[in-house]
Amino acid sequence: MVRNLFAKISIALTITAAATAAHADVDVTCVDSDCMHNGWVVTDQRTGQTVSNICTAADCNVHGWNSTLNNLRAEDTVCKPGGCFSEGWRAYTTQTGQISHEVSCLTSFGANDCLTNGWNTFVPNRGSYLTRCSQGDCRNIGWDINSRPTARCKAGGCFVTGWTVFN
Q: How many Å apart are CA 15 and CA 84, to the nearest integer?
């Protein structure tokens, strides 16, 4: 059950599965209107379970974040040198220390930028998933996996108010 919920959490930002139907499965809300510095809360609309993602040292882009489920720290995400949304990140299962997924930001015109170009997510034993920003704007519009609409920003922007994930 925890593993399935963390798969959902990965979907919320790293989007590790393709969308299949157009109903909201996951709601993401930024903590104090600032996901990049305070973190975000992910709520599975079907089960009501929540996962809190809190920025390490108040900066998710530089340091990463920690994910907590039922008051237990379950996953630690660490930015690659250069920043999470410029270069990418690695997420580790807290209990085992094993990598759960790795994200690499896509390059366009010589610049890496996850929030403009998108990213590639590698999940051990599952493969890779390509995520592209909708209309080149993950900050305000959302992102798609394998050309299917997947996450859409709430009014105010994904990293200010939050986003909705469709599965």
A: 15
Longest CA–CA span in the chain (Å) reads: 43
Task: Give the predicted TM-score (pTM) of the model.
Answer: 0.84
Using an 8 Å Cβ cutoff, are 61 and 84 in contact? Answer: yes
pLDDT digits (tens, 9 = 90+) for 3-19: 444 444 444 444 323 33
Q: Please report which confidence band the pLDDT of residue 23 belongs to, taking 50, 70 and 90 as the band edges.
A: low
Tokens of 27: 């709601």
Please, which residues have CB within 8 angstroms of residue 48's CB and are 6 or more apart in sequence? none
SS3 for 15-71 is CCCCCCCCCEEEEEEEHHHCHHHHCEEEEECCCCCEEEEEEHHHCCCCCEEEEEECC
Q: How wide is the angle at C-alpha 61 spanned by C-alphas 57 and 64, nearest 5°?
A: 55
Contact 137, 111 (CB under 8 A): no
User: Which tokens is 15 given?
Assistant: 């989007």
pLDDT tens for 68-100 read: 998 899 999 999 999 999 999 999 999 999 999
